[in-house]
Specification:
With 271 residues, this protein is of the alpha/beta class. The protein has a single domain, classed as Purple Acid Phosphatase, chain A, domain 2 (4-Layer Sandwich), CATH 3.60.21. It has a 6-stranded mixed beta sheet with strand order 1-14-2-3-4-5, covered by helices on one side. Helix 7 links the parallel strand 8 and strand 9. The longest helix is centred in the first third of the chain and has 19 residues.
Length: 271
């Protein structure tokens, strides 16, 4: 075999090895200050943008990642289901995880594009997931009263309708409790900063699909365009409040691979 042929073959093998490596899921750990409202630490798993992708038989790889992290609750921040894929994987995952942990869910744009978002909500409620769509619920975790709030994705909503859900969600909270907001859309960061949520969790951006190494920036994200600002990690909302954005778990659903951008489950410690 000629030298140039060997080199081309080596480059091709390296290229596919890189693709496979960045399809491997990881956990990212982020710490948030409890703003004096948390007596004992609380740990959340943030799961977004699963799009019914496959993570082992019975979604065991994903379930094991969450189990290993020893979390107190799971936050499902949109696009857990898909509008094109068969949603068997998502049903298996949510049914299993809801049997182990308190779980909270909001819709993403793909659930609405499927035109079966009501069916998804009914299924999740039937397996014990708390579905949030412009409201709040209070849960006690490790002795802490925590308000969990959530919004529908604004795919088919006017700005005023979406803001009304946001207003209603905050109205259902107690000022003394630590407040978490589930929303799918990170690009609405400036609006979240006008409210009194200690923690906002989002997905949607898929990490910018191709990450720029050693930065929090991606190449392109839905509703943010090229070189989006909010794709990965923790962002300051002011007044001791933060937004955490997950790179999500979508793999085979995308028409092109992820680069420098592992799919992830985010582990959030509130201390």
């Amino acid at each position: 075999m000629k030298k140039w042929t060997k080199r081309i073959l080596a480059i091709i093998i390296l290229f596919f090895a890189i693709i496979l490596w960045y399809e491997v899921p990881v956990t990212e750990q982020i710490s948030i200050d409890g703003n004096g409202k948390i007596a004992e630490p609380v740990r959340f798993a943030l799961v977004t943008d699963l799009h019914s992708c496959y993570y082992g038989k019975n979604q065991s790889q994903l379930i094991n990642m969450i189990d290993k992290a020893d979390v107190d609750a799971v936050l499902l921040s949109g696009d857990i289901f898909d509008n094109k894929f068969d949603n068997g994987n998502s049903r298996i995952f949510t049914e299993q995880i809801a049997a182990k942990y308190p779980c909270f869910y909001v819709t993403g744009n793909h659930e609405f594009w499927s035109k079966t978002e009501v069916e998804f909500k009914e299924f999740l409620t039937s397996v014990g997931v708390t579905v949030l769509d412009g409201d709040a619920t209070t849960i006690n975790l490790n002795g802490n009263n925590i308000d969990i709030c959530g919004l529908d994705d604004p795919t088919y909503m006017t700005w005023e309708e979406w803001r009304a859900q946001l207003d209603e969600a905050q109205a259902g909270t107690n000022p003394e409790n630590f407040k978490v907001l589930l929303s799918h859309r990170p690009e609405r960061k400036d609006t979240y900063s006008e409210y009194d949520f200690d923690l906002v969790v989002c997905g949607h951006a898929h990490g910018g699909q191709w990450k720029i190494p050693f930065t929090q920036m991606g190449v392109e994200a839905p509703d943010q365009g090229r070189f989006p600002k909010y794709v990965d990690g923790k962002y300051d909302l002011g007044n001791g409040h933060y937004m955490v954005v997950s790179r999500g778990l979508c793999r085979e659903r995308m028409p092109y691979p992820r680069f420098f951008n592992h799919p992830e489950v985010v582990i959030i410690d509130v201390e």
